[in-house]
């Protein structure tokens, strides 16, 4: 298809498509003549991914580039590729880096308790978990980190379900697209469902309480 | 306690404490003399809440004011108070308002399927869910909104657990503080656990796949 058709189909402007090609985020179309190129379904898929990451994830272009680079290193396993993508997607979180040895140990304990044996001992997400635990303890919301136990099987089931949706029979690019979209969009989906469930459960418990 | 002790205990500066009092976010201390006031545990709790909302939730002062106002309308039920707090906490989401009749109907269908009968028919969160469904469908991530079925019992269990942590025997202010902290901090906690679980499940499935 022509670039104008590609723009119509994906909702990404021609100028932005050309920008993504220049930045190496989108492969160039197959040249038909000096001024005409032909684009196919892979371009459509990639553009839809870039659009979602821009609109929903507010992912900066530098991070998009890191995602594409991770896809192109064919010596890496799909798992390593996913890891690099997650690092690139890590938005600067608002949680202050306030962890200490105690909360870092609690974070490791939670990962152990969940049975997530494959999480690297130095995964940055462990530090982030420790920061969040510090906020929870400091806020007085809970003095009992054991409370996490209730979440673990539920979160495990959600993550396992999401990874099961990624079809290992597909090419690396497609697997990457599915993983990244899942990470960003299904995270929003999950929090939205949770707010709806909060409204329901709040009504069940507190509709009479003044 | 003196204001300087309050500042030390909560990590909120004296200047910010005075600002919160001026803005009506914190009740004034009990006057001991023209220049001295006495603060108690309620001030500590409220300041810790305000600090978390500022640091983690990046909640603007206007929204904090709406939260406090919701606490003070004593004719409202706790459920109504929680609803107002949720409205105030709704951050401007990056998901574009792209819903249509079809996705709005799918959103209602998901809420029905979950059994969340107490969610208001005109709850803004239903529209937001429709926007997210539109992004999912447009991105090609899934053509099957039935996929949501797998999430519903898990999210329902998480939300029910969270609401069960709120002790109905406490005063309104404390219940509000617990609800707001849960909404903001446990949402971060949940997403963090999910990323850890993703790393584990990705390793189980794709550590060999190139």
TrEMBL record, chains A, B:
Xref: Pfam families: MerR_1 (PF13411)
Domain HTH merR-type: 1-70
SUPFAM superfamilies to which the protein is assigned, alphabetical: Putative DNA-binding domain
Entry keyword set: DNA-binding
GO molecular function: DNA binding; DNA-binding transcription factor activity
InterPro entries: DNA-bd_dom_put_sf, MerR-type_HTH_dom, MerR_fam
Descriptive protein name: MerR family transcriptional regulator
Source organism of the structure: Nocardioides turkmenicus
């Amino acid at each position: 298809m022509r670039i104008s058709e590609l723009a119509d189909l994906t909702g990404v402007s021609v100028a932005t498509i050309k920008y993504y090609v220049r930045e190496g985020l989108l492969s160039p179309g197959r040249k038909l003549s000096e001024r005409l190129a032909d684009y196919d379904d892979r371009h459509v898929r990639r553009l839809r991914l870039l659009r979602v990451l821009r609109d929903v994830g507010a992912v900066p272009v530098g991070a998009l580039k890191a995602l594409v680079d991770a896809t192109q290193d064919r010596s890496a396993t799909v798992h390593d590729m996913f890891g690099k993508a997650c690092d690139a997607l890590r938005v600067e979180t608002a949680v202050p880096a306030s962890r200490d040895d105690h909360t870092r140990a609690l974070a490791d304990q939670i990962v152990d308790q969940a049975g997530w044996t494959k999480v690297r001992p130095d995964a940055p997400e462990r530090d982030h978990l420790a920061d969040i635990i510090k906020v929870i303890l400091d806020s007085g919301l809970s003095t009992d980190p054991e409370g996490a136990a209730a979440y673990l099987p539920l979160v495990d089931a959600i993550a396992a379900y999401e990874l099961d949706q990624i079809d290992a029979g597909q090419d690396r690019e497609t697997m990457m697209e599915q993983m990244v979209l899942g990470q960003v969009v299904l995270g929003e989906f999950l929090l939205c469902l949770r707010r709806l469930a909060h409204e329901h459960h709040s009504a069940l418990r507190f509709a009479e309480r003044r």
